[in-house]
């Protein structure tokens, strides 16, 4: 008895040692089959594994080349023998008519004894907290085909099979966990690689954006700010009415271009690509007059005639986004002229719509207000008429510039898309009616503006001092220190201040600004500095100035081209008294100087 047990332990240790030599599942199974076959003198040895959805048991490993070649390679999971084996421990002897036995032994042939035992299969997800969870365990089946001459199996052989099955289950579970861990490690490395690539792409995109903004700022925005500053000086000169219209139109057009540059530079910073809409009082008559002047110039350049149709009943002082409205009108005109060629005429119509007319249903959000008398619904129509003959009245098409356009292509143009997006942000609508005669192309814009009422009258009067002349004696003798790193902008801003009567010392850096304050023989009353100077920006300059001077003197006014709201909060924190958004115009400079001085308690 002791000798038999010793032989059993020897065989088990040998088999266990062979099984644990590898961490590959297939090697473990094949080694198990070979060693068990040698030790127990088996006719065949096979392993059946469940598929992923646990609907079938598949024959995956076998020693006999004839195993299941012409018989079953798969058995349903609910096969009676499969169910009996997987639900019970220990070795089970299969019946002679068992499908599992026949498939494992290679089909009908010599009589033999077939034994089977289950082997639990665990995976990494079954180990939570270091120990297997209570999960629905999957089982593989180890099948041993015993020749009929060896049908006198003893308990020792049964014990060997049970112990080996347990060892194989442990080894398979270990190999599965390591395999899944390796797979997870590879997935993690791949994901880390993707994250690293995304990081590199983000850095490159940020560098490209910074490079683009630098080029746009130095090559377009700064020169445009200088042009607007010089034009604002011309606006204050004594000019004829025609000259004034031309200058005002140049200012308006330059402002539109400046806004477009700012939008192009700030798009990545804006949420969902939306642009800010500023609701401010403005003069509608002035906007229409300046827009007509510019449209006429464009039409003359393109070889088109031009006429206007504007009623005298239009309200003048309204509330809305003046800059965006002017920008949309220019987009409309530019879009129609770009798709047109040859001779023709452009008609610019402005119509005051009543609150109950049918055309008003085109306006998005137009009926949110019940009192129509407070609002003016304005329709702008721009029509390009040209000669031609109708060739096919059933198709709405136009021929411009040698190319055939249909209505859908026209509406998908970049300019029209830009118009529509801007108008939708102003709660309006713009569309291009389909024409059936082939002789005209028209775009229609509808916007609603808040009209001036009696209790809002003072608001318009305060923010529309455009027609008031600025006296050079208002700020006469005011000592101003100007710091700006851009030579042209610094020169223009200095001209604006001198136009107002200020005595200006101009420097080009933050260090020079601090040095000028320390060596100045006169008392500097106001410091005007750019917030975005290199080496030492305006915030740092202000912080150093406030260390040695009071918070209210000298007065500090910042210049900034950004539209971020948090800039003013930071200005207040460091002790800046005022902020002027670039471009710096004469009127804006005068208003901010006056506001800051009044708040500081200085009489003018």
Automatic annotation (TrEMBL):
Q: Which GO terms describe its biological process?
A: negative regulation of ethylene-activated signaling pathway
Per the record, the major location class is endoplasmic reticulum
Q: Mind telling me which InterPro entries this protein's record contains?
A: CheY-like_superfamily, GAF, GAF-like_dom_sf, HATPase_C_sf, His_kinase_dom, HisK_dim/P_dom, HisK_dim/P_sf, Sig_transdc_resp-reg_receiver
Domain Histidine kinase, residue spans: 215-449
Q: Give its localization.
A: Endoplasmic reticulum membrane
Q: Indicate yes or no for the key word Lipoprotein.
A: no
Q: Which residues form the Response regulatory domain?
A: 479-597
User: One GO molecular function term?
Assistant: ethylene binding
The parts of the chain that form a coiled coil are: 178-205
Similarity remark: Belongs to the ethylene receptor family.
Protein's recorded name: Putative ovule protein
What is the species listed in this Swiss-Prot or TrEMBL entry? Solanum chacoense (Chaco potato)
């Amino acid at each position: 008895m002791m000798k038999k047990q010793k032989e059993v332990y020897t065989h088990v240790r040998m088999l266990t040692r062979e099984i644990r030599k590898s961490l590959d599942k297939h090697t473990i199974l094949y080694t198990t089959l070979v060693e068990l076959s040698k030790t127990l003198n088996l006719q065949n040895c096979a392993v059946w594994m469940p598929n992923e959805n646990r609907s079938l048991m598949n024959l995956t490993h076998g020693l006999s080349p004839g195993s299941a070649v012409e018989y079953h390679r798969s058995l349903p999971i609910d096969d009676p023998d499969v169910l009996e084996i997987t639900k019970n421990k220990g070795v089970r002897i299969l019946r002679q008519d068992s499908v599992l036995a026949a498939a494992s032994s290679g089909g009908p042939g010599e009589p033999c004894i077939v034994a089977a035992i289950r082997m639990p299969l665990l995976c990494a997800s079954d180990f939570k907290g270091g120990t297997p969870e209570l999960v629905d365990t999957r089982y593989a089946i180890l099948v041993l085909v015993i020749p009929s001459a060896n049908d006198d199996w003893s308990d020792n052989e049964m014990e060997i099979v049970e112990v080996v099955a347990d060892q194989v289950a442990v080894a398979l579970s270990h190999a599965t966990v390591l395999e899944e861990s390796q797979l997870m490690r590879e997935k993690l490395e791949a994901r880390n690689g993707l994250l690293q690539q995304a990081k590199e792409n983000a850095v490159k995109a940020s560098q490209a954006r910074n490079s683009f903004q630098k080029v746009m700022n130095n090559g377009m925005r700064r020169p445009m700010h200088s042009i607007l500053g010089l034009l604002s000086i011309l606006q204050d000169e004594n000019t004829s009415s025609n000259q004034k219209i031309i200058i005002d139109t140049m200012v308006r057009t330059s402002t539109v271009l400046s806004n477009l540059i700012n939008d192009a530079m700030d798009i990545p910073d804006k949420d969902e690509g939306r642009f800010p809409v500023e609701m401010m009082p403005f003069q509608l008559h002035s906007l229409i007059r300046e827009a007509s002047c510019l449209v006429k110039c464009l039409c003359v350049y393109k070889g088109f005639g031009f006429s206007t149709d504007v009623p005298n009943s239009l309200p003048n002082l309204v509330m809305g986004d003046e800059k965006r409205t002017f920008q949309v009108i220019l987009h409309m005109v530019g879009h129609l002229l770009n798709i047109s060629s040859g001779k023709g005429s452009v008609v610019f119509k402005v119509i005051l719509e009543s609150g109950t007319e049918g055309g008003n249903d085109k306006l998005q959000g137009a009926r949110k207000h019940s009192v129509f008398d407070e609002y003016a619904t304005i329709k702008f129509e721009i029509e390009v008429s040209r000669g031609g003959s109708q060739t096919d009245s059933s198709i709405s098409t136009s021929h411009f510039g040698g190319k055939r356009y249909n209505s859908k292509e026209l509406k998908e143009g970049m300019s029209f898309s830009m118009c529509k997006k801007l108008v939708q942000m102003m709660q309006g609508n713009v569309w291009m009616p389909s024409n059936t005669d082939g002789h005209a192309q028209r775009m229609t814009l509808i916007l609603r503006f808040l009209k001036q009422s009696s209790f809002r009258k003072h608001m318009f009067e305060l923010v529309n001092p455009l027609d008031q002349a600025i006296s050079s004696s208002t700020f006469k003798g005011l000592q101003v220190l100007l710091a700006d790193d851009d030579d042209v902008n610094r020169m223009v801003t200095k001209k604006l201040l001198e136009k107002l009567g200020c005595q200006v010392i101009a420097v080009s850096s933050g260090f020079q600004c601090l040095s000028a304050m320390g060596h100045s023989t006169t008392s500097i009353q106001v410091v005007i500095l750019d917030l975005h100077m290199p080496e030492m920006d305006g915030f740092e300059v202000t912080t150093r100035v406030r260390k040695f001077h009071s918070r209210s003197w000298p007065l500090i006014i910042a210049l900034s081209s950004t539209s971020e709201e948090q800039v003013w909060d930071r200005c207040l924190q460091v002790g800046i008294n005022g902020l002027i958004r670039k471009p710096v115009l004469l009127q804006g400079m005068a208003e901010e100087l006056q506001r800051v001085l009044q708040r500081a308690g200085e009489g003018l």
